[in-house]
Amino acid sequence: MYSLKSLHTFGFNNHARNLLILDENFNDLCQLEQPYWILGQGSNCVFLEDFDGTIVKIESDGKQLTELEHEYQLTVSAGENWHQLVCFCMENGLYGLENLALIPGTVGAAPIQNIGAYGVELNRFIESVEFIDIRSLQKRRFSQLECKFGYRDSVFKRDMQGQFIITKVVLRIPKLWVPIAFYGELQRLKEPTALDIFNKVIQIRSAKLPDPRQIGNAGSFFKNPLVSKKHYAALQCEWHDIPCYEVDQTSVKVPSAWLIDKLGFKGQKEGGIQCHPTQALVLTNDGTGTGSQLLTLARKIQHQVEATFSIKLENEVRLVGSKGMIEL
User: Fold this and answer.
1) I want to staple 51 with a disulfide (CB 3.0 to 4.6 A). Which of 16, 21, 40, 213 is the partner?
2) What is the CATH number of domain 216-320?
């Protein structure tokens, strides 16, 4: 049995039957049997109990930069650290990813979740995603369109769940840079440079989100829900200060943190699991928590939010049971 405690940032002391580490050699996949779980740096999943199968850990690295007429093409191995990639881009004058600074995890995990922050989502920079189809062991490539990106969503998270291993991500970063600083505290920046935004995002994230090296967590536990403008208008009648961000002509995005905070969950505990005292969207493990305690608190939050606001929160963190992913 292999300990999973150091392999996911929530830090539950559960175990897996087998561990397979992959760098650039994927030949061992021919011996892979169900159940298995593909793992980068474990920052967006929680092992709730012992895993009765194989953890496949991706540790490939390497970057290739090509300069084109109007953009840069950057091909990155799946095992590279995401934030270090953003730092590399900043150091080399490739601007655009700065809003996505300090997001934990690997490059290979980023398109699965279509990571996003402060008004920017990764899919705007994706040219293609290269992966191995585990069923056939054939290398394949999906274009940006074929990835079917959505809000914290992609074809890899839905239709192809458990059937692939991302090996490389190809980004296209335009040479013409336009700042995106309309979201939250970034609005306070006056005529910001890319470096200004990069530094501000790091400052905000560092202040708001607890460091998983100090207390176990997986960042934002719930997605920000999309609701119709009609539903939002009805909520405003009772909750005059409810914030939102416009998505399109018919829907808005409501911050989950506001909903959870409004119901008084900040600081609430379930055994060793706590709703963070200063950031309601983060659930933490003090080192003594269990998977069942996490599910209890998360479901309590989910139920109360739905009962009060008629909004069902969805977990952003992937929850892993003994055989694979489970539903909240």
Assistant:
1) 16
2) 3.90.78.10
